[in-house]
Amino acid sequence: MNAYWLILTLGFCVILSYLYSFISKATRIPSVLLLLITGIGVRLVFGPELIRISFVNKIVEVLGIIGLIVIVLEAALDLKISPEKVTVVRNSFLAAVLVFFLSVLGITAVLQFFLERSLIKCIVYAIPLSIISSAIIIPSIEHLSEQKKEFIIYEASFSDIIGILVFNYLTAEAAFSISSIILFGFSIVWAIILSLMISLALSYLLSRIRSHVKFVPILTILLMLYAMGKLLHLPALLIIMVFGLLVNNKERISLSWVMNVLKTNDSTDNQYFEELLKQLKSITYETSFIVRTFFFILFGYSIDIQVLTEWEVILIGSSIVGMLLLLRYLYLRYFLRAHVLPELFLMPRGLITVLLFYSIPQRLQLGSFNNGILFFVILTTSVLMMLGLLLYRADVINLSDGEQPL
Predict the structure, then answer these.
(1) pLDDT (tens digit per residue) in 116-133
(2) Who wins on pLDDT, 399 or 217?
(3) What is the tally of structural domains in the chain?
(4) Which are the contacts of 252, defined by CB distance < 8 A and separation ≥ 6?
(5) Which CATH number characterizes residue 365's domain?
(6) CB-neighbour burial class of residue 110 (10 A; exposed 0-12, middle 13-18, buried 19+)
(7) What is the pLDDT of residues 15-31, one digit of tens each?
(8) Rounded to two decimals, what is the model's pTM?
(9) 277 closest CA partner among 241, 243, 254, 328
(10) Residue spans of beta strands (DSSP E) within 172-245
(11) CA–CA gap between residue 19 and residue 58 (Å, rounded)
């Protein structure tokens, strides 16, 4: 393709995505769903020969990694920590943990029943399908109340981190034992400590840089830290989240030595840091927008719509989605005793699911697994999220007996 045509094509995709964001605000149809449909439409019109699918898959994987980092950072930069939010953080964390592990068990049972393969391989495939996609849900919930929005952001972020931790453990270990689980626990504790140290160092660097070029080095370091964490089998996503929370909540930090790192008594320095924070948020939002645009268009292009009509895909995919809905309903209604709408339907699978599927080692791959099941679950849960958002009205929610608002 001619370089100028390529520039026009890329520019058209960005402008189209920007228009989709306005359509999403007006109609509550998630913009990422519109991007997926656009990618599918391009493949139907121009055919799979337009871009080699192997090349598309590699680009999707790279964009997925970058997208995951900037989206989690974007979420962390939107969250404020305060004593009043202990309840919502606790509820979202419990939701992420319990629903995740119950979903893994449920999906594993579905895969074993239909595919009749080894337990460990079915578990590895169940993990990506059990993770809520922060890349899809976070840009789609601006219509919700502030309390519901915070619950969803925390839940999606916790779900990403927990899912990646468990996935990395299962795919890295050749054999499983009590000692390996204990070692895994220690690696999480070490990762949390490391995350705090690195986040403080990056915050200090951010507050002291006076050069015109300051955010690109910080974002580059975050990308490199994530890559190193993956190579060392550490939960590097924690570093991203802790850094965002630390920078956005510096006024809540009470330790004097930490305060000296993040702010000073000089009002000029504090004003400078606040201005930096605004710029960092702006750059993160726009980077997230660009990455999300090309990821979901290319992922939509990689979907062969024909496989979605196969009976095996429909049967197994519907069973998985049904299991996810049932488990989420039971948790929200009977454990959390909260109003279930629209949270019941806000469980899309997407970027992180695709990313982890591409990361499954050869020795743990299921030859009988139809990738159409993955596409089916992602598209169906995205449509369900759209329906939940369309039906949601903050001013007409009626709580049943015993139900609590989130």
Answers:
(1) 788 889 999 999 999 988
(2) 217
(3) 1
(4) 80, 81, 82
(5) 1.20.1530.20
(6) buried
(7) 999 999 888 888 878 88
(8) 0.81
(9) 243
(10) none
(11) 27
